[in-house]
Amino acid sequence: MGYTFDFGAVFDRAPELLWGSLGTMGLALAGMLLALLIGVLGVAARTSKIPLVRALVIGFVEVVRNTPFLVQIFFIYFALPLMGIRLNPTVTAIIALGINGGAYAIEIIRGGVESISKGQIEAGFALGLHKGDVFRLIVLKPALRAIYPSLTSQFVMLTLTTSVCTSIAAYELTSAAQRIESDTFRSFEVYFTVTAIYLVISTLMMGMFALISRHQFNYPTR
């Protein structure tokens, strides 16, 4: 082929890749927390007795799930300033990730909530629990256990989606890789290494989620 592989140029820039990885994990964690908040609040609103509130949640979910993430982040970063709302790349990335992940989280959590029998909810009210306590203790926690695998898989996907945030100059792993590649012209070595790093990050996250599952949801259901 006439191409000589040289990973030395990549290893020399390892600190940049490390900082980029930390940036990726920071964006992912913040995006996950925001997505989970949107998901829980969205499910609560989805069960509202007010038709307009339910319609707004359904519309939000449909719009976000049926448009590309790249378009969403461009809209927040480039279109909102025309309305006087200016956000820096990091904040924009977190909001876009949270909104995107939140739309999927609403549907995932809703599926878990609807799996809870009405008898359990009625028993909670019979015990004198407040509506908020019934939702938190009797509905939400068992529902989270039921949908935990799907929700965590979505969060891992959200972590990989952070790579798109390089399009607005948010600092994360892919943006660091692009700078290194433009300086060294070692495309194969750079992106091979970055692929391996993303694989490690995803594996560590799945291990972390499995550990949380064993500690938080390891209780009998009957």
Main attributes?
222 residues, mainly alpha, MetI-like fold, 9 helices, transmembrane transporter activity
Q: Number of DSSP strands?
A: 0
Average of the residue pLDDT scores: 90
CATH class: Mainly Alpha
Which residues form runs of ≥5 with pLDDT under 50?
Answer: none
**Portion in strands:** under 5%
H and E string: HHHHHHHHH
Give the terminus-to-terminus CA distance. Answer: 63 Å
- What is the total number of structural domains? 1
Helix content: over 70%
- Quaternary state of the chains: single chain
CATH-assigned homologous superfamily: MetI-like
Would you give an account of this structure?
77% of the residues lie in helices and 0% in strands. The protein is mostly helical and 222 residues long. Helix 5 packs across helix 7 (131-161) and helix 7 runs antiparallel to helix 9 (187-216). The mean pLDDT is 90.
How would you summarize this macromolecular structure in one to three sentences?
With 222 residues, the chain is mainly α. It has a single domain, classed as Orthogonal Bundle (MetI-like fold), CATH 1.10.3720.10.
